[in-house]
Backbone:
């Protein structure tokens, strides 16, 4: 039984990517307006994580991009292997589309690209971030970070032009960078000019630090771009009840995701239930009902609270918990 089921205490905040926050988590803050961050390369630093690998740390948020096992190992476990990107890209009879939400220092996307070296496919990467500063930082520290080496020229082109095309081994890559506030972009008509995702690498800072990226509205917006029969999948490092409820209420089917070394479980979601190999079940649902931190964020303000009556009802009637007999 999970500790959550035994303990009346609030579910702990997702442990990764942030150090203890300086404000009380139950505080009701005024709804913040989006402000484009004024960050530069000096707001990032290299840190050596437990595995010995180098990762990037954002000084302002106090979060390490890929703690414990490091950037490449985490991206391989969470996205490359779990989402079977190489096999799916090879099998696609069209351009395979990856949405890289939270480009940051590009560890996720470059690890995915490296896995495609011998794959004869056409792959389109749509990367999103509201700042290019961590990518510039990564370019300056290519040799320490390792995963950047060999991709310096495409990164320079991406930074200079917002898009680039290149041949990577057998794979033809088109890579675009949307330097924008992702929630604003996703709600804008511009989103329909971008092909819907086959794979979403969802890597924002933690909900406590970056609540605007974890609202129900964000995941509903993503779900709208993943048609039921198109095979799109989403993976993310968090396994929190709050995140999983949010994905379910957004219309995804949701399952336990692969371990990353840092966490024994992550989260995997798809519109098509047959793609979710370890779906959350009635036991998980029971825990969610008892959880003190399960209600999705409806606004970009972090708070923890149990499910509302409306969310409970919506979860109970989710098709994931009512499988239609074959
Ligand atoms: C954990 S880091 C991503 C690490 C990255 N995936 C990598 O592999 O290096 C989270 C990223 O989300 C970006 N971000 C945070 N809020 C955002 C927003 N509102 N719109 C777009 N990007 C945002 C941050 O600038 C940061 O680069």
Residues:
């Amino acid at each position: 039984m999970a500790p959550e089921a035994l303990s009346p205490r609030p579910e702990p905040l997702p442990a990764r990517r942030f150090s203890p926050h300086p404000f009380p988590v139950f505080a009701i803050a005024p709804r913040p307006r989006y402000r484009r961050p004024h960050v530069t390369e000096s707001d990032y630093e290299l840190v050596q994580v437990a595995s010995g690998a180098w990762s990037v740390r954002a000084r302002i948020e106090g979060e390490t991009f890929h703690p414990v096992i490091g950037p490449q190992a985490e991206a391989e476990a969470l996205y490359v292997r779990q989402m079977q990107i190489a096999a799916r890209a090879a099998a696609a009879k069209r351009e395979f589309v990856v949405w890289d939400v939270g480009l940051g220092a590009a560890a996720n996307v470059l690890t995915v690209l490296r896995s495609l070296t011998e794959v004869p496919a056409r792959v389109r990467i749509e990367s999103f971030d509201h700042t290019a500063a961590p990518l510039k930082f990564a370019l300056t520290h290519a040799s320490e970070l390792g995963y950047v080496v060999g991709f310096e020229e495409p990164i320079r082109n991406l930074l200079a032009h917002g898009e680039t095309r290149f041949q990577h081994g057998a794979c033809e890559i088109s890579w675009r960078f949307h330097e924008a506030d992702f929630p604003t972009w996703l709600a804008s008509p511009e989103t329909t000019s971008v092909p819907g995702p086959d794979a979403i690498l969802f890597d924002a800072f933690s909900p406590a630090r970056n609540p605007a990226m974890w609202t129900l509205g964000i995941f509903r917006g993503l779900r709208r771009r993943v048609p039921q029969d198109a095979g799109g999948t989403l993976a993310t490092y968090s396994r929190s009840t709050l995140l999983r409820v949010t994905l379910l209420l957004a219309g995804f089917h949701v399952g336990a995701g692969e371990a990353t070394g840092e966490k024994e479980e992550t989260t995997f979601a798809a519109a098509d239930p047959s793609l979710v190999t370890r779906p959350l079940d009635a036991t998980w649902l029971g825990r969610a009902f008892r959880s003190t931190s399960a209600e999705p964020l409806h606004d970009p303000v972090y708070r923890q609270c149990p499910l509302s009556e409306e969310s409970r009802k919506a979860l109970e009637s989710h098709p994931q918990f009512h499988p239609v007999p074959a």
